[in-house]
Amino acid sequence: MPVYLPPINRRKFIRSTSLATAGLLFGLKGNLFGNDNGNGNVDPDYFILASDTHIDGDLSTETGARLASYLETMVSRILSNTSRVPAGMIITGDVARTRGLPEDYTTFMNLVHPLREAGIPIYLCMGNHDDRDNLWEAVPDKKPDELFVSDKHILIVESPSAYHFLLDTLYIVNGTPGMLGEEQLDWLEKTLPDYDDKPVIMYGHHHPSTTTGGLSSLDDVEELWEIVVPLRHVKAYVYGHTHNWRIQNWHGLHGVNLPAANANGGFVHADFRSDRMSLLLDLLDTGSPQHGQQGSLMYRSGEATSVEESGEVPGPMQLHQNYPNPFNPKTTIRYEISTTRHVNLSVFDVQGRHIVNLVNETKGAGKHEVIFDAASLYLASGTYMYRLTTNGSVFSKTMSLVK
To answer: What CATH number is given to the structural domain containing 333?
Structure first.
């Protein structure tokens, strides 16, 4: 299983089975390695999602010190919100710099120690710059006696509104391609049908597409689709590797590509509900126009289907910050969609009251823009929200009218 770093001297098990002490290790339902910090502010369906921390064990180098500072900033920002504590932090691989040295993991453990002290557990997937043996050398007391799949680190985390399947796509240390492997795919095919009473969210390091920015992807992705596409309770795949933030869709499954933990990246606040996952992008550069981007991904529903029947193709959807902002009285809102689909772009006030539909029609794939004219609506100065809804996905941003 992926390494589970529990809160310091704390462990919480969910209520629903007398086999809780064995359930997670052996694939039974009903328990969660989670958090119990004693302050009553833990939201059990709220997680921090991050990827590609690339921590270097040598902090004397400029690169090592810089990468460590990024993670320190993330930890500090997570801990700054004491009113709402995440149930855990999931890191989808590439914790280590390049070859997954033991000292990389030791340094990482020291950097995230404040989170664990605050009662926030951490779950680690394997990336192509990680090394399983070296990781266990750094945290020997966390190695389980038995694994779901030999030489693979797989974990099932249960929260009230979802099952989180953490998969292992590491194929070659410091090599870019990823692979689940036949044994892990067989395990998924046998296990997933038993977890159909709530949504399943899958996590892995490699992106499930043929090419992305020249990087090698998950080599056995077609075999994965054959298993999970017909299982309608599987809702999304969350991954890293590319260092880019984007939302995609494959055969009705949402794809969430997490940003890297670097100067241009950050992490994601994720809320899971029975019918959706809501995401908030938290960038280290708070001046970036993408910082604070948020949206809800509505889960697919309906009867089982096959990959051939799906007809959906991969591709991002993006809502940009309006420009200019603040504005008076006009501003331009841009958005991008990957396929022809129905689009609704609407404006609301801060109380959530609908003001106007800017777009409510079928649009072709590509980049689109629309002018919002506040003068024609006789709006007062203030903050307004614009929301893009298409194919069950919802994204929103705020804009300021200053007269």
So the answer is: 2.60.40.3080
Query: What would the two tokens of residue 159 be?
Result: 């929260």
- Which of 38, 37, 34 has the alpha carbon at shortest distance from 46? 34
> How confident is the model at residue 170, as a pLDDT?
94
List phi, psi (to 5°) of 168: -120, 110
Over residues 73-95, the mean pLDDT reads 94
Assess whether 47 and 65 both reside in one domain: yes
Range of the domain at 159: 3-310
- Spatial separation of the C-alpha atoms in residues 185 and 202, rounded to whole Å: 13
Q: What is the pLDDT of residue 303?
A: 54
- Cα separation, 325 vs 247, in Å, equals 24
Q: What angle do CA 41, 46, 52 make, to 5 degrees?
A: 125
Q: Give the number of other Cβ atoms within 10 Å of residue 17's Cβ.
A: 14
The string of pLDDT tens digits covering residues 35-69 is 444 556 889 999 999 999 999 999 999 999 999 99
Q: What share of the chain is helix, strand, coil (3-state, %, to 5)?
A: 20, 35, 45
Last-in-domain residue among 265, 287, 310: 310
Q: Are residues 279 and 200 in the same domain?
A: yes
CATH number at residue 162: 3.60.21.10
Domain count, the chain: 2
Sign of the dihedral defined by the CA atoms of residues 247, 162, 344, 348, in that order: negative
What ranges in 43-181 are assigned the alpha helix state H? 62-79, 102-117, 132-138
Residue 373 phi, psi (nearest 5): -110, 105
Strand partners, 390: 393
Q: Are 129 and 54 in contact (CB under 8 A)?
A: yes
Interval 106-146: pLDDT, tens: 999 999 999 988 989 999 999 999 999 998 888 777 676 77
Using alpha carbons only, how large is the chain's radius of gyration in Å? Answer: 21
Provide the whole-model pTM: 0.75
DSSP E strands in 142-275: the ranges are 155-159, 162-166, 200-203, 234-239, 246-250, 253-257, 266-272
